[in-house]
Amino acid sequence: MSETPIAKPHVLVIGAGHAGGALVGQLRQFGFAGRITLVGDEPHTPYHRPPLSKAWLKGETTTEKLALKPGSFYEEQHIGLRLGERVQAIEPDAHRVRFDDGTTLDYDWLVLATGARARQLPIPGVGHSNVLSLRNLADAERLRNALKVDRKVVIIGGGYIGLECAATARALGAEVTVVEHAPRLLARVASASIATFLQSEHEAQGVQFRLNTGIDAIEGEHAATAVRLSDGTRLPCDLVILGVGAEPAAELALAAGLACDDGVTVDADCRSSHPDIFAIGDMAKRPIPIYGRPIRLESVPGAGEQARRVAAVLCGREPSAPEVPWFWSDQYDLKLQIVGLIDTDATSVVRGDPASRSFAVFHVKDTRVVCVEAINSPPAFMAGKKLAASGKPVTPSELADSSADLKTIAA
Amino acid sequence: MARITFIESNGTTHTADINDGTSLMEGATGHNVPGIDADCGGAMTCGTCLVHIDPAWVERTGTRCEHEQQMLEFAGRDGDNARLSCQIIVDATLDGLVVRLPEAQI
Ligand SMILES: Cc1cc2nc3c(=O)[nH]c(=O)nc-3n(C[C@H](O)[C@H](O)[C@H](O)COP(=O)(O)OP(=O)(O)OC[C@H]3O[C@@H](n4cnc5c(N)ncnc54)[C@H](O)[C@@H]3O)c2cc1C
């Protein structure tokens, strides 16, 4: 894009995160010639968040490497950036947003991409300076400064972010205890077999677990000195990491009267209840055809897919076929790749030997693969992605038989 | 630095000057070359940065590691000198490289 864009139509994107960042580039790729403005309250151009709990936190990659696009990109592509600015209100009828400082900006199409924020816990002591959440680079910088050899770290929450932080904290030499109120790890997002496998891997690395356990309070005058558990135990600590999930940042949409229900309710084209306002990324709840119900996903691939969808709609292009949701997580030398969502009605079969640390759990419902969780097994993930999308009939026994050729099964 | 040509499946051509030490994927996304989604940002997880290397350049772009090989093979997309562009690191020896973009990513 070298010609200066025309002033209209004006696409205004609120939230310079993964979804917003992907959208502005995609619009230009599709030849959008109007004006584009990307507003974000963080001081950074859009960046990759996954490394914040993994390679970046471990010090294996630099902050520059996190950027989605080089700094020169936005000028070259004629994308107006307003970083470090916060939108305070949307006025849908006037097609206008209002910033914190009272100034306003008009739009023709508005795309909300404000993401999610780390959930807080309503317990005494969560406000202490050494009780940290992890959602953005500023959080990650605080965490990296606090994570040191021999520090006693209590992680509240045994979900992906909690477990990735546990793995990184161990790699940095900290002592780690993970407290989870459910009876097992990853209760909502992974099968029991995967959760059990990951727990034993973490235990072998020296992580302690307290499952089925709530938190009564975080003790300490100004800083946390111990976490008091629901069973009365006190865990002394130098640092507490809160990894108890995220909530959609949907207040702007709610206040503007858009339909919301755990995120902004959108249709398959990511359009909200107002025809000129779209919502994408972690904040949007959209219908996913293969599941036949609206789902709010928190994943990079989900953000990318929705960005491509809205770009196609705004450019009057045929959108590509809906994708099967997928996700990944890295812990120690384990790469977990998941395609599809866990379905408790499905039959699960293990392919390969967990003791080899390379295996997969296939979830099959009515002869169709609905989900695959692969540990250090890219073939199972790729074949699963293909099978989940094609719906090709399979039998649990052929999937469980490691000598049956996966390529043939998926072909 | 290397000047690299990306040819879309519809024939549209893009050239980009890519710095040494960056991956072909980073170079392409940094220049907004269409058709490279690179969802995972180079973690060799997604398979959405697939390109086909021009036959004349296959030797100079190196070979697939086992992980990359498996990803491409099991997606049924290992033909036509396919590579994951996040796994090709650019240097001056790749000046003039030509790659073709698939119609759709994995
Ligand atoms: C530590 C961590 C690890 C992760 N690991 C993985 C992983 O391995 N794999 C995976 O698939 N996903 C992972 N995710 C999830 C993934 O990063 C998110 O799904 C993705 O970033 C969602 O993109 P988004 O644009 O919706 O939200 P975000 O990327 O969060 O961006 C939203 C942006 O909007 C800004 N904003 C909010 N309100 C306003 C306002 N009123 N005005 C202006 N700006 C505003 C926010 O500050 C933020 O910058 C991880 C997330 C975290 C935090």
TrEMBL record, chain A:
Single GO MF descriptor: oxidoreductase activity, acting on NAD(P)H
Pfam family, one: Pyr_redox_2
Gene Ontology cellular component list: cytoplasm
Domain Reductase C-terminal residues, every copy: 326-409
Residue ranges occupied by any FAD/NAD(P)-binding domain in the UniProt entry: 10-294
InterPro entries on file: FAD-oxidoreductase/Apoptosis, FAD/NAD-bd_sf, FAD/NAD-binding_dom, FAD/NAD-linked_Rdtase_dimer_sf, Reductase_C
Membrane-spanning parts: none
Cofactor: FAD
Keywords per UniProt: FAD, Flavoprotein, Oxidoreductase
Name of the protein in its database record: FAD-binding protein
Naturally occurring in which organism (per UniProt): Denitromonas halophila
From TrEMBL, chain B:
Keyword Flavoprotein set for record: no
Cofactor(s) listed in the protein's UniProt record: [2Fe-2S] cluster
Pfam families referenced in this protein's UniProt entry, alphabetically: Fer2 (PF00111)
Top-rank taxon: Bacteria
Keywords: 2Fe-2S, Iron, Iron-sulfur, Metal-binding
Cited Gene3D superfamilies: 3.10.20.30
GO molecular function: 2 iron, 2 sulfur cluster binding; electron transfer activity; metal ion binding
Protein name, UniProt field: (2Fe-2S)-binding protein
CDD domains attached to this UniProt entry: fer2 (cd00207)
Taxonomic path: Bacteria, Pseudomonadati, Pseudomonadota, Betaproteobacteria, Rhodocyclales
